[in-house]
Amino acid sequence: MASTACFVIVSKNDIPIYDAEVGSAPKKEDQAYQHQFILHAALDVVQDLAWATSTMFLKSVDRFNDLVVSVYVTAGHTRFMLLHDSRSEDGIKSFFQEVHELYIKVNC
């Protein structure tokens, strides 16, 4: 996994359900807000892409400095958003698929 990451689950009504800062280095509080802002700003791009493609994994929908926003959209239009500095698309996709399986188990 990436050394810097912010993971958010957003409902189909754009309401954050879950938010987690993950990383090896201690984070400043203002940096956490910046990560949330970057992910929130990417929601419009995600909404446009979600209707334009049939794939669930939207690789890198936005970039900010060295950080990349990757998104996984479920069939119910819940968005799993990850802000990271990793280049491993296969690892990110596997992470999203595992989260999706757990999300289904919890909500069904």
TrEMBL record:
GO cellular component: cytoplasm
BP GO annotations: endoplasmic reticulum to Golgi vesicle-mediated transport
Pfam family membership, one: Sedlin_N
Top-level taxon of origin: Eukaryota
InterPro entries, per database record: Longin-like_dom_sf, Sedlin
Coiled coil: none
Protein name from the UniProt record: Trafficking protein particle complex subunit
